Amino acid sequence: MAGLGSSRTRRGFLGGLLSGAAATAAASLLPDGIVAEAEAAPFLTADFTRRRDGDDWSGSGVRWFSRFGPRVSVTGGRGRIAVPTPLASAADSQPISVFLLDHDSAQPSQRVEFAIGVPDTRPGVILGATSLEAYLAVTVEEGELVLSRFERTRRVVLHRAPGRTLRVGQAYTLDVRVTARRVRARIGEQRALPSVFSLDAGATVTKGMPGVLVVAGPPMGRSALAVSRYELAGPTGAATPIRPTYLLTGTPVVSQGETTVHVRVGAERVCQVVIQHASDPGFGSSLSETAPVTVTAPSYTTKTAIPVRTSVWWRAVLTDPRSGTQRTTRAQHVTPPDPGEPLVMGAASCAQLWNAKGYHGLTRFVNEAAPVRAAMLVYQGDYGYPSNSVNSCLRAEPDFYVDRITRFLRSPDFINLRAEMPVGFTMDDHEYGPQNNSDRTTLYPWTVDLWNSMHADPSDLGYCDWRFGDVHCLTLDGRRYCDPASQPESPSKTKLGVTQKQWLRQILETTDAQLIVIFSADIFATRGNTLPQIDCWW
Prior knowledge:
This protein has three domains: 16-233, Jelly Rolls (Sandwich), CATH 2.60.120.200; 243-336, Immunoglobulin-like, CATH 2.60.40.10; 339-538, Alkaline phosphatase D (PhoD) (Purple Acid Phosphatase, chain A, domain 2, 4-Layer Sandwich), CATH 3.60.21.70. Strands 1, 2, 4, 5, 7, 12, 13 and 15 form an eight-stranded antiparallel sheet that branches. Helices cover 10% and strands 33% of the residues. The chain is mostly beta strands.
């Protein structure tokens, strides 16, 4: 990035001292006239006015990263974050974030010079991000400075202080400084200390990534945040850890007497992945490793098959090719079910995500419903409802879908469950298209390939089968191949499509299993008058 090294010494970093306390905690207002301590000179400067059109934000040894990479660019001497017009159904306060890598700090001082494209744009800076979803941020919104905590499933506003109403096209400067127990913020040339709040243990700025964000959602229209200059001061910071986003163990497959499972490793960004597997939890003498694979494109994942004998433990080693930072993930455990015990399998679906505090069905399944450890779980669609009539993604576009589905997969309960058993998936209407009961004529054409880059199922067809002893299990996809509900009824009208139907028929006619279990996201009976009867098998 142009302009690395010492730069102008800035005065101030004055303004609201914003608290990270819980939303219900009372803020203590300190007396007027407090004098801020001396400000450290910036040690990193990103001057976008010296950059060429078409560049990304990274350069000259400075690395930025965003899950929304196609929306982050350099145009007209500005670092831009493009904000699409949100859907009317979109949830409010969804962040579009850009993180500065390898400068992790718990006390960053940041200065951003910027302009906005529409009046209600909500720009800000990120404080101490420990993942792509978890951080504090100071934003400028409707004449106020706002301190918020961003979580996996929601945004929690902690405190507000007087700020400034932003005008389209006018240049502004946002200064934010973190000290031991305070966050100071100032917008523009405001010199007063309008409010002073103190941090507490409920929202301490942790050691993590700084950065820039825009908080989007209706009724905001299409816009762009245009950053002309970014400065970082304070502690120089540390290398950003290379972190996994999720680990999946897929449905077991038996072929010629050998059992295998596919495993999927997702990472936050570009990295090299090596998968280790062993027959003992200590990864001792039985350790095997896959060849290194470098994941370079969203959703930054890789998938491979590993053998399962009596038990298998597997984990991934992630290496950042630029910084050399390395991370070994938590071990995952797969054990075939004991034929002398009851066979327990689980089915789940429909986790609403944004603005929801949690999804508790998986916890109840593990802790209450299962008499013995389950052999596997089948998740039958609606992964966080990226497409929905309320609280949907900002737009029905791949990067927003990846963001929403990844947040769903990162549920702590789901992570703990997947560490102990395989999980199979079926897609459903809200993964496929813009409405309830999407079919092959209404699905977004990119959704199939996107999900195929994220799951660990043994097949990319949307359906598969497996055996546990004398129990034969199948999943079906009643969306991807089905004819529209509006099509007149006829003997040729199909919900499975010709190929999937023939596959199902062959299994039913030839299997020697004593029990057949079919997992379907589509219901088999009618829902009566509660919903149009267009998504059932009846």
